């Protein structure tokens, strides 16, 4: 199973953000093997404005991407992009091949940190009980990334996510964003992958100007190959000049 994983587009009405998203999307379109799943793990818009989601719809058109909200997104306007009725929950599931995909909602309006919505928790319990592989996509990572900027605003109560997945016999994978830096980790047996930011890259604590966002760094994406039988997960990171 091939997964194209984008995150943190932070689209505004300027040319720069659109160019960066377009560059990454064009790479996905050019792949000789069409991804089985394309997911954008939040912060689609920078300010949650309707015009920003209109731009996202244009840039992502035809990609078949599944989107989850991040802390910069706004549910009312993002629902229009996703074709959801007013008040509808964002958490939902889909099945790709033999894999169940949970698109989880960790947006806590008015806050930068994340919490799983009640609908997400209910669906998580349901999909965790199903046989076969499970992929959970959400915005906020369930682990620290070693950043004084990002760690305080990660997912609160990560065990609410990880415990049901850890207890499964079949493979489970968590895909997220928010950190603006690619990261591959395993938390008590659960693989977690954070995609690089399209909009910018987090400077790490041991880099110059630590815990700031480098907006000149190239945009990137993650390509994951998941073996649905064994659960083996291989991740490749790509970055692009703009």
What is this entry, summarized?
The chain has a single domain (2-239), classed as 4-Layer Sandwich (Purple Acid Phosphatase, chain A, domain 2).
Oligomer: single chain
Strand adjacency order, main sheet = 4-5-6-7-9-8
Q: CATH homologous superfamily? A: Metallo-dependent phosphatases
Look at the structure and give the CATH class: Alpha Beta
Spatial gap, N to C terminus: 29 Å
The number of E-state strands comes to 13
What count of structural domains? 1
CATH architecture: 4-Layer Sandwich
H/I helix tally: 5
Low-confidence stretches: none
Shape: globular
Strand content: 15-25%
Considering the chains and any ligands shown, give keywords for the structure:
single chain, 25% strand, six-stranded mixed beta sheet, 242 residues, alpha/beta, Purple Acid Phosphatase, chain A, domain 2, 13 strands, five-stranded mixed beta sheet
Can you put this structure into words, describing what you see?
The protein is of the alpha/beta class and 242 residues long. The chain has one domain: Metallo-dependent phosphatases (Purple Acid Phosphatase, chain A, domain 2), CATH 3.60.21. Helix content is 22%, strand content 25%. The protein contains 5 helices and 13 strands. The strands form 3 sheets. It has a 6-stranded mixed sheet with strand order 4-5-6-7-9-8. Strand 12 (220-226) and strand 13 (233-239) form a beta hairpin. The radius of gyration is 16 Å and the shape is globular. The relative contact order is 0.17.
